[in-house]
Amino acid sequence: MTQEKPAGPAGEAQVDPRLLVREEGFAGYLGEFRRRIKGGELGPLPVIVGLVVIWLVFQTLNDRFLSPQNLSNLSVDIVATGLISVGIVFVLLLGEIDLSAGAVSGACAAVLAVLSVGQGWDPLLSMVVAVAVGGAMGLFHGFFFAKIGVPSFVVTLAGMLAWTGFQLWVLGPNGTINLPDGLISNLTDTYFAYVIAAYGLAAAATAGFLLVSLVGNARRRAAGVPSRTVGDIVFRTAVLAVVAFGVAYVLNLYRGLPLALLIFLAVVIVTDFVLRRTKYGRSIFAVGGNIEAARRAGINVAFIRMSVFAISGAFAALGGIFAASRISSASQATGQSNVLMMAIAAAVIGGTSLFGGRGSTYSALLGMLVIQSIASGMALQGVSNAIQFIVTGAVLLAAVVIDSVSRRSQKASGRA
Questions:
Q1: For residue 14, which of 49, 168, 197, 357 sits 20 to 30 Å off, Cα-Cα?
Q2: Nearest-angstrom CA–CA distance, 173 and 140
Q3: Any stretches that span the bilayer, and where are they (predicted)?
Q4: Is residue 130 part of a domain?
Q5: Considering the domain boundaries, does residue 351 fall inside one?
Q6: Could you give phi then psi for residue 189, rounded to 5 degrees?
Q7: How far is the C-alpha of 153 from the C-alpha of 408, rounded, in Å?
Q8: What pLDDT, in 10s, does the model give residues 195-235?
Q9: What's CA 88's distance to the chain center, in Å?
Q10: pLDDT recorded at residue 229
Q11: Most confidently predicted of 214-228, 243-257, 328-342
Q12: Stronger pLDDT, 315 or 355, i.e. the higher one
């Protein structure tokens, strides 16, 4: 039995033009790009353009900015806060906020240091326990939010204060615990110097993307829906290959592929897959888009809310571990200062909406690249931290304005 196509105003069969894009080739994608821009569906375009502009400006001011050493250091510097930001993305997709992430990261770094140094635990076991503690802290917030009805802003603000006190208590009167050389410090100090490591990763990423694209195309054809053209797949794969091998080339000019960056990229890819390709991920988008509709569709809203805050806590703990690894110590300053604000700013600047229902964990990667590029470029110019905060704040405001305007455009075009 075949379905009839809905008739348009003139009585002719109408087909959503977005379904024909892949069959029309590059001309179709150009038209789709224009439609998305007019409809406010900007995606990662603004942040990519902004990142290119930032790099060009700072390279013009100081030719050391795009040097292999600076870019390699930048790729490691983004990891700790970037991991926290990945967890923040999950919370923002619900249209909520987690103000405790910075404090949770500091508290869990303190737990890690006490267990591995003070108690002599195996470093790997200490890290697992620290991440579990972070997840439990997040679950605690999620319970009061989802089950009791306490606003996320309030419960995580209370958590921020409580976990900061917990961090100070765990660290004791000295306030700092130095981490010896070993597994924990190696997280941010290990580089795969063999050139095959970076190039092999680039080749694997390119081949994996090509394989997924071909398999997806075959499934679309089997289902009888429009699929990508061969030219489109080749073009997308070529663009990814240029970027991946370009990054590999630059990293190999310094110390090679950083382990920390490899772990961060793996986290971003896996979490994006969970959000985009699993029932659980689609449930998060559904709850963030329209909670009542999600509830009527049979989604366990309370479970989604609690689990998302647990995920945020676990990633905050993981970020705290990498922050401690970077400076080889856990102190009262770990997770404090501007860590929380930078993690939230990265997610928003990278394209995750503050209003919920739209975003990606790639936002954490892109946003941190923007923030850390600004910090790195201004440090090379000798600009004070005060100016760095002002510029980062301006970039954050611009990202929120773009998000608000794009939402208004989508409402006007009936796609909100």
A1: 357
A2: 27
A3: 42-62, 74-94, 101-118, 124-146, 153-171, 191-212, 233-251, 257-275, 302-325, 337-355, 362-380, 386-405
A4: yes
A5: yes
A6: -120, 10
A7: 25
A8: 999 999 999 999 999 998 888 888 888 887 777 777 788 88
A9: 8
A10: 76
A11: 243-257
A12: 315
CA distance 71 to 251: 8
Of 100-114, 153-167, 299-313, 383-397, minimum mean pLDDT range: 383-397
Q: CA-to-CA distance for 71 and 123, rounded, in angstroms?
A: 29
In CATH, what number is assigned to the domain containing residue 99?
A: 1.10.3470
DSSP single-letter state for residue 178: E
Distance, in Å, from the CA atom of 190 to the CA atom of 116, rounded to the nearest integer, reads 19
Q: Quick check: 372 and 74 in contact, CB under 8 A?
A: yes
The per-residue pLDDT of the chain, averaged, comes to 86
Is position 90 within any domain? yes
Contact, 39 vs 413, CB < 8 A?
yes
Question: Of 14-23, 92-101, 170-179, 346-355, where does mean pLDDT reach its minimum?
Answer: 14-23
Predicted confidence (pLDDT) per residue in 227-249, tens digit: 777 778 888 899 999 999 999 99
Check if the beta carbon of residue 110 is closer than 8 Å to that of residue 300: no
Pairing of strands 329-331, 176-178: antiparallel
Closest by CA to 47, choosing from 343, 372, 403, 399, is 399
> pLDDT, tens digit, for every residue of 105-149?
999 999 999 999 989 999 999 999 999 999 999 999 999 999 999
Scanning the structure block, which residue is given the tokens 């100070």?
A: 168
Report whether 232 contacts 29 (CB < 8 A): yes
| Crossing angle of helices 101-113 and 123-143, rounded to 10° | 150
The total of structural domains in the chain comes to: 1
String of b and e for 122-153 (b: at least 16 CB within 10 Å)? ebeebbebbbebbbebbbbbbbbbbeeeeebe
Whole-number Å distance between alpha carbons of 131 and 108? 7
State the residue range of the domain holding 278: 42-193+255-399+406-412
Q: Can you count the helices (H) and strands (E) in the chain?
A: 17, 4
Contact 166, 340 (CB under 8 A): no
Residue 346 lies in a domain: yes
Strand partners, 330: 177
Q: For residues 213 and 203, give the distance between their C-alpha atoms in angstroms, rounded to a whole number.
A: 15
**By the 8 A CB rule, do 145 and 310 touch?**
no
